[in-house]
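This part of the workshop introduces the protein records we will be handling. Backbone structure tokens are a discrete shorthand for how the chain folds in space. Once this layout is familiar, the rest of the handout is easier to follow. The record below serves as our worked example for the rest of this section.
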Amino acid sequence: MSDALKIDKIFADNLGTAFGGCVRDQSLTLFSREIPRAAGVAWNPLPFFGREAKTRFKARWAALLQGVGLWAALAAIPELAADEKLSRKISSQMQAYTDAVLKASLLDQLTADEIRDYNLLRQRFMRIAVQKSPAPSKDVFARAFISAVTGRSPAEAPTDRVLALSEQIGLAHSLFTKLADTCRREPLSYERASKKKAA
């Protein structure tokens, strides 16, 4: 790779922003009712019923997606995994941008306790993304998420639920991986974003 396309803090910052947008899309516009079904959570098909419970679930899913996104980024781009400063950079930028773009549509609908729960869960999923043992996997993330929504130990998660949710997590991981590959090939990903607003 040429110096002009060096994986550095600017690239990590831009990738974090792109991943934050991907978290937003997967939490809102691309969100599927198959996800709560896979987790064993009741989901009222009528849009205006159970809104608070749906919002809480989507916030938890967004927290998980940020961990899955970090896992995908570190796996797809070894330079990020090899440099702790770069991995922290993508993590912090993804979190900041995710919170900004989900604020009005999701996070502002949560109570103070639910925001605390969201932040704690996000920290938990971020730790899973970088842990060495056990290594991050769809199964580990699925068990942790089911634990979050049921209040039970990850080890108690039913196997059928783990398998079903692992499939949904795999889809999310694949989307993040494709985005990471696209960003890596895009020269603009290596340039500092302009602060000027489009005319």
Notes: The longest helix spans residues 159-185. The chain has a mean pLDDT of 93. The two ends are 34 Å apart (CA to CA).
